[in-house]
Specification:
The chain is an alpha/beta fold. Among the domains are: 168 residues, Molybdenum Cofactor Biosythetic Enzyme, Chain A (3-Layer(aba) Sandwich), CATH 3.40.980; 53 residues, Molybdopterin biosynthesis moea protein, domain 2 (Alpha-Beta Complex), CATH 3.90.105; 68 residues, MoeA, C-terminal, domain IV (Beta-clip, Beta Barrel), CATH 2.40.340. 18% of the residues lie in helices and 28% in strands. It is built from seven helices and 28 strands. The strands form eight sheets. The protein has a six-stranded mixed beta sheet with strand order 18-15-19-23-22-20, sandwiched between helices. Strand 25 and strand 26 form a beta hairpin. The termini are far apart. It catalyses: adenylyl-molybdopterin + molybdate = Mo-molybdopterin + AMP + H(+). It is an enzyme of class 2 (transferase). Belongs to the MoeA family. It comes from Micromonospora yangpuensis.
Amino acid sequence: MSTEAAPAAEPVVAPPPAGWEEARSRVYAVGLAAALPATNRSLAEADGHTLVEPLTTRTDLPAFPTSSVDGWAVRGAGPWQVVGRVLAGGAPPPLAEEGSTVEIATGAMVPAGATAILRIEESERTADGRITGTPRPAPEWRLPGEEARAGEELLPAGTPVDPALLGLAASCGHDSLRVRRPPRAALLVFGDELLTSGPPTAGRVRDALGPAVPSWLRRYGCQVRPADVVGPVADTLPAHVAALRQALAGADLICTTGGTMHGPVDHLHPALEALGADYVVNTVAVRPGFPMLLARVTSDDGRVRFVAGLPGNPQSAIVSLVSLVAPLLAGLQGRQMPLLPQVTLAESVPGRGDYTHLALVRLDRVAGTAYPVRHVGSAMLRGLARADGFAVIRPGNSGEPGARVPFVPLPLFPGERAS
């Protein structure tokens, strides 16, 4: 019998972390591939959804010549004989005679044959009831098709539906829209050390992400109900698996907080393995937030759902949201990949060697410059509360004053536009 020792097992080597820009592109692509199904919604129900098809107008805008003012639609030179009145909603007969006029209301259809509109406040009535005055040289009515021609594309597919879009759709003659619904999200908070009320005590810290993450997700257009926020989940593998299974039954995206490393009570990775998940991204070369992940779970009906593992440190968790969750949600809704504007650094921002550095900054919007804020440790939230977003310092670089760098804005309310 041979006494030769068996060869030692090869150590398992973790894959290198994904580059930050690569990770964003990767999660956007898988989100787009799993885009939520299209459905028809009435205008009253469509707010917060996303257009599946371009918004086109069903008619010329305006559909007929429309008076811009209250006054007199006149034909030829004055003084003019009053032959009628035109109100909004009516279809007037033509002005057939030279020297005739009809009183006209703002928004009313201009009668055929009219050559000008005289403003009511710039007109006078003669003793015999005729109208005098001088029309302004510029036309006082809107021409058919002045805003858009029938069939013209006004907004592309992938546009978020907001109140302005709803008003435009109604003016175009639409009663419903072909849209994708907002993603449904849930949050699982991991950590036996967390308190959900009151101040921190010895060995126990207050959960800051349970209240914050759902609000961030809503600003990215997600639906998150209070019942979808669960935790703290017990630090055991069975509890993690059970919580994930329950959340996956109703959500398109489950965010978890903590447990993304491989410590003695970090059960997220084994729980994902138990659910048959596969990783889209497992760690990202970014500071802070390095141990973030995104996994994909395919159910028996073939539907894909996602789990975003956010680190337990609060600022790192928000970095994970802007890095992985934002582009994923854009893909799921069929929206464009979020483009990053450029800002000019007003002060120096250090690099992080081979890692991308997302540095919290506040903006001087008048000057177009970005200033780093204080209190920016991965476990701190004070700096985040004063910041407008993150300056992106690419690997191998440092941010010098005057440098132009990409900027990741913190999300606004759905449909809200930055000033």
